[in-house]
UniProtKB/TrEMBL annotation:
<keyword id="KW-0663">Pyridoxal phosphate</keyword>
<comment type="similarity">
    <text>Belongs to the class-III pyridoxal-phosphate-dependent aminotransferase family.</text>
</comment>
<dbReference type="InterPro" id="IPR005814">
    <property type="entry name" value="Aminotrans_3"/>
</dbReference>
<dbReference type="GO" id="GO:0019481">
    <property type="term" value="P:L-alanine catabolic process, by transamination"/>
</dbReference>
<comment type="subunit">
    <text>Homotetramer.</text>
</comment>
<dbReference type="GO" id="GO:0030170">
    <property type="term" value="F:pyridoxal phosphate binding"/>
</dbReference>
<dbReference type="GO" id="GO:0009436">
    <property type="term" value="P:glyoxylate catabolic process"/>
</dbReference>
<dbReference type="InterPro" id="IPR015421">
    <property type="entry name" value="PyrdxlP-dep_Trfase_major"/>
</dbReference>
<protein>
    <recommendedName>
        <fullName>alanine--glyoxylate transaminase</fullName>
        <ecNumber>2.6.1.44</ecNumber>
    </recommendedName>
</protein>
<keyword id="KW-0032">Aminotransferase</keyword>
<dbReference type="GO" id="GO:0008453">
    <property type="term" value="F:alanine-glyoxylate transaminase activity"/>
</dbReference>
<keyword id="KW-0808">Transferase</keyword>
<dbReference type="Pfam" id="PF00202">
    <property type="entry name" value="Aminotran_3"/>
</dbReference>
<dbReference type="GO" id="GO:0005739">
    <property type="term" value="C:mitochondrion"/>
</dbReference>
<dbReference type="InterPro" id="IPR015424">
    <property type="entry name" value="PyrdxlP-dep_Trfase"/>
</dbReference>
């Protein structure tokens, strides 16, 4: 699922096959000049300059594993055909160090996408590695029917970053599962069935969240429950420009014409990630949260791609809209590929 998702995100954001930048040779992207620290007068035009990654004091370990060709052959034989890869000769990534990845020949790449905005502390960060190693030496598995301080400490730490009454944490296994649980809770709490999500949204690929997701590339012909996909308030390409009130009216219309007048909840990313980094019209969530709450619904913020400071300006994406949701879901970045959602 992660790979499928990555393909979609990258296609939307960069065009096909351009996830990892390698400036050493054969650059796959034209670098953006605004990243340069050199003044424009002094800068050599980028297309003439030799493209090089900055120095990095790390020597990847010699790689003695199977070659890219051997791995590809085995993948084709033993893994499902839904897995795909980039490039005619796909990269065999064998090591990661902070913001860089290394292929089987020791060539260094800048991981510009942090593994679908997931690896927020870089690859193999020494502090993360140390914490994992120390814990593994002590105790590798326990369950919630016994006590362990870590889960309570972690919940407390997360709650401390949340505004309002958002003080209770549920741990699950993925972003999809978090959204499934949020939807289940919204339905049980409200006693209503209908959920509202935005067109162009991605909320997961599990059998329930696939209904919330509103991108045809991620849909399959299965029952989806009662889900209303309202117009996404895209301030640049949307039918109503950045007029939040007109988009909010579409939510009201769906409730009035498509439901009994009551809904279970509303879910939205504050920046649509898989849909191509699409922001919401300013002030949209405030108006919609009011409408949804009046219809008995619960407001859910999906922070899987926007939480943990990744918007740059705020810790949570929903803060950019000045709202406090009833439920917040998160996964990537929190997980660092180790723990989840
Ligand atoms: C906004 C958003 N919500 C939910 C998910 C689902 O998360 P997971 O792949 O961990 O199930 C994703 C995955 O990319 C996502 O981008």
């Amino acid at each position: 699922m992660a790979m499928m998702l990555q393909r979609k995100v990258l296609r939307r954001t960069f065009g096909e096959g351009k996830a990892i930048l390698n400036f050493n040779s054969n650059p796959v992207l034209s670098p953006c000049t605004s990243f340069s620290t050199v003044t424009s007068a002094a800068a050599t035009p980028f297309h003439n300059a030799p493209r090089q990654l900055p120095p990095f004091d790390y020597q990847p370990k010699p790689y003695n594993g199977p070659s890219a060709d051997q791995i590809l052959e085995k993948r084709k034989k033993f893994l499902g055909p839904s897995l795909f890869y980039y490039y005619q000769k796909p990269l065999n990534i064998v090591e990661g160090k902070m913001q860089y990845l290394y292929d089987e020949n020791g060539r260094r790449y800048l991981d510009a996408f942090a593994g679908i905005v997931t690896v927020s502390c870089g690859h193999c960060h020494p502090e993360v590695l140390n914490a994992i190693t120390e814990q593994n030496k002590l105790l590798q598995h326990a369950t919630t029917i016994y006590l362990h301080h870590a889960i309570a400490d972690f919940a407390e730490a997360l709650a401390s970053k949340m505004p309002g009454n958002l003080k209770v944490v549920y741990f699950v296994n993925s972003g999809s599962e978090a959204n499934e649980l949020a939807m289940l809770m919204a339905r049980l709490y409200s006693g209503n069935l209908g959920m509202i999500s935005l067109r162009n949204a991605y909320h997961g690929g599990s059998s329930s969240t696939i209904g919330l997701t509103a991108l045809n590339t991620w849909k399959y012909p299965i029952p989806e429950g009662e889900i209303h996909h309202v117009i996404n308030p895209d301030p640049f390409r949307g039918v109503f420009g950045s007029d939040a009130t007109r988009y909010a009216k579409d939510v009201q219309d769906h409730i009035e014409y498509g439901t009994s007048g009551k809904v279970a909840g509303f879910i939205a990313e504050t920046i649509q990630g898989v849909g191509g980094a699409v922001e919401l019209a300013p002030g949209y969530l405030k108006q919609v949260y009011d409408i949804v709450r009046k219809a008995g619904g619960v407001c859910i913020a999906d922070e899987v791609q926007t939480g943990f400071g990744r918007t740059g300006s705020h810790y949570w994406g929903f803060e950019t809209q000045g709202v406090i949701p009833d439920i917040v879901t998160m996964a990537k970045s929190l997980e660092m590929s180790e723990v989840e959602a």
